[in-house]
Amino acid sequence: xxxxxxxxxxxxxxxxxxxxxxxxxxxxxxxxxxxxxxxxxxxxxxxxxxxxxxxxxxxxxxxxxxxxxxxxxxxxxxxxxxxxxxxxxxxxxxxxxxxxxxxxxxxxxxxxxxxxxxxxxxxxxxxxxxxxxxxxxxxxxxxxxxxxxxxxxxxxxxxxxxxxxxxxxxxxxxxxxxxxxxxxxxxxxxxxxxxxxxxxxxxxxxxxxxxxxxxxxxxxxxxxxxxxxxxxxxxxxxxxxxxxxxxxxxxxxxxxxxxxxxxxxxxxxxxxxxxxxxxxxxxxxxxxxxxxxxxxxxxxxxxxxxxxxxxxxxxxxxxxxxxxxxxxxxxxxxxxxxxxxxxxxxxxxxxxxxxxxxxxxxxxxxxxxxxxxxxxxxxxxxxxxxxxxxxxxxxxxxxxxxxxxxxxxxxxxxxxxxxxxxxxxxxxxxxxxxxxxxxxxxxxxxxxxxxxxxxxxxxxxxxxxxxxxxxxxx
Length: 474
Ligand SMILES: [Zn+2]
What we know:
By secondary structure, this protein is α/β, with parallel strands linked by helices. It has helices at residues 11-23, 71-77, 116-131, 134-150, 163-173, 194-208, 229-242, 254-264, 268-274, 292-301, 309-314, 322-328, 347-362, 370-385, 418-424, 452-470; strands at residues 32-33, 36-44, 52-61, 64-70, 78-79, 83-84, 89-93, 95-100, 153-158, 176-179, 182-183, 215-217, 220-221, 246-250, 282-286, 304-307, 332-334, 402-406, 431-436, 439-443, 446-447.
């Protein structure tokens, strides 16, 4: 690992910057004051015109990126009492996890190696009914935030229960989240069925819309096979009325396709189209089994897709036709899904699996090159979520949601192509610094906004309770 100076030491910039500072000696007074300057041997911008800036830096003010340039130019034009050096680091946009059920981390490893229908109906839904309460969500959400910050996720989509509890945790830990409470046609934690669950979700949306800089409320009818056409229509109408995003599980398994075909005489995406459901505010998780015309339809309607390769593999749902979706122009992001079907919230695994499995299924090693996949994990996700005007790239005017990744470990040495390294060799453990809205959440791998000891204790206690109830000792 590279020796890291104190944040204010800025040791790494010293050599390159000394000359620039000398040249600008007379202009020092006019250097604009900012709150934070962050550097990187490489700055990955996600900007087509200049995708990588070597020896780059960004200046941050009021939580936003106000300048992106080479380190010497940034230091010549800006001054800041707080600086994070960039030696041995790549500075890139934070990862966007487009599909998760965060608090399910507490069910991690509870039921593995089962078919989706069996897993969901016989294990997950009953366990949720029995154990999910406010305390479960608080502890699960805290555990998830710890794991996500540690691995460089800066924005995540949370499709789960007790959204007010989740929002409180997100507020405290400093991450950005699109919180879309799950609504379903049968009893779920705290609810009798659709009517009360959906009324509560709409109430959450009304109370949180535009109220918090990092929390975006949304709606999440669970899936076409668990929500009736009338209720799906109700959900999309409310999303339009309150102008919020809507997310849904869609075309996840062949069983779902058969089931929807039998019930409604249409394939899942076509079924939603028939209901007038599809528009750019909708982003769908999975979409493993769309046919060609459904892919064209989603592209035409501007529906985003979140690809969850690890969950699709573990539940043997299949391989999504991602190359065809990308070719059709669909905005694609990546997700982990809940930790009960993954079993973690590690976006680096999603990145690498996406870059690998589609090469295997197409028998074409040029399929989904590293750059395309890294784009999916950042800007692609932001676009699918409808947040690309705020996050997903390193660009002036966007929120400062960025991470530094340490390039000095053995598995990243030597270095020919930084994007190749991130996609094919990078690991969650390489993430060194995490910044959201200009606030440092992790520095030099030290978490600053979560009490990991306390969370670990509470999570273990809940795990023991679940274990004792599910497998009573005799
Ligand atoms: Zn899911």
